[in-house]
Amino acid sequence: MRILVTGGAGYIGGHAVKALGKAGHEICVFDNLSTGHEWAVLSGKLVKGDLEDRAAIEKVLEEFKPDAVMHFAAFIQVEESVREPLKYYRNNVANTLNLLEAMRERGVGNFIYSSTAAVYGIPEHIPVRETAPLLPINPYGMTKVMIERVLADLAAATDFRYVALRYFNVAGADSGGQLGQAYKEATHLITRALKTAHGEFPKLFIYGTDYPTPDGTCIRDYIHVDDLADAHVKALDHLVGTGRSEVMNCGYGSGYSVKEVVETAKRVTGIDFPVEETGRRAGDPPALVADSSKLMQTTGWKPKYNDLEYIIKTAWEWEKKVRGTRR
Ligand code: UFG
């Protein structure tokens, strides 16, 4: 199939592009390279463009004629979204509407959407199922709830089908060593811990030790980026094969606390990097762990890398490589 991938030069998008290419799909990446990189596009071609620019989207749809669109392009940092909500509503909501309008105009009706566990806010039951109430506690999560709602309304009203994948905490790097996280500012826990181990930061802060969890730090479900990329390939097959819209969690169902991640990072790297406990970070829910049985049953997806040590090991290999090449 011909797949247009927005944000395909980014961390998750780049891994998905590689997996889609391996699965035999033809790819066109549409990315403004604000956080992505040309080198991350390992399959198909790259069109540099912005989702703010409706004419540019229409042009790429007209020229590439995709069968489906995978939409990764978005801002993703929870804490930043609390400080700068308009930045998030503009890019994640308004720009996604530009894309959907252009798709409707051009008759492209298959859509794979990057949603998030942040839509649940503070879930009552862990692991959380897709049927749990959507009560986000930060603007980032709200932007994703809004678009999920738009997608449901659009699917009800028109010949439009979608799969929204609610990612839990995506981490690790390409098992083949070609891709990994390369944001200018590292804010994610595992990347930040590994960069601290490398000496890029003097210490790692643990944000909050008074959460209602066994060791007082936040619990997250870390999913290897290659498993997530595979979930996209399978979700696409499901969507095009059955024509049925779905919303599905992507995680492993195992939660690790910040302290457990830090201990594992120290063990994997063999470096006892400095850590300081400090206050809570705005917008953080105490625990997010996925029930992904729907994804497995619906698409046949099976986790391959459900192992925190392996996740951190691949991220560490990538960090060492990046440091060598100054990416
Ligand atoms: N944390 C620290 N120190 C750091 C960085 C993070 O203690 O230096 C803590 C955070 O406070 C949080 C946990 O580690 O409790 C995980 O934080 P991340 O920044 O790695 O990830 P988030 O859970 O905030 O968010 C990520 C994505 C979101 C997505 C969410 C889904 O960035 O887009 O996972 O669970 F919605």
Notable traits:
alpha/beta, Rossmann fold, UDP-galactose 4-epimerase, domain 1, 2 domains, 7-stranded parallel β-sheet, 3-stranded mixed β-sheet, 10 helices, 18% strand, binds uridine-5'-diphosphate-4-deoxy-4-fluoro-alpha-D-galactose
Task: Walk me through what this model shows.
- With 327 residues, this protein is of the alpha/beta class.
- It has two domains: 2-171 and 222-250, Rossmann fold (3-Layer(aba) Sandwich), CATH 3.40.50.720; 189-220 and 253-322, UDP-galactose 4-epimerase, domain 1, CATH 3.90.25.
- 41% of the residues lie in helices and 18% in strands.
- It is built from ten helices and 14 strands.
- The protein has helices spanning 11-22, 54-64, 78-83, 85-106, 139-157, 189-197, 225-242, 258-269, 293-299, 308-325, and strands at residues 2-6, 26-31, 45-48, 68-71, 110-116, 161-167, 169-171, 204-207, 219-220, 222-224, 246-250, 256-257, 275-278, 287-288.
- Strands 3-2-1-4-5-6-11 form a seven-stranded parallel β-sheet, with helices on both faces. Strands 12-9-14 form a three-stranded mixed β-sheet. It has a two-stranded parallel sheet with strand order 7-10.
- β1 (2-6), α1 (11-22) and β2 (26-31) form a beta-alpha-beta unit.
- α2 (54-64) packs parallel to α4.
- The two termini are 32 Å apart.
- It binds uridine-5'-diphosphate-4-deoxy-4-fluoro-alpha-D-galactose (UFG).
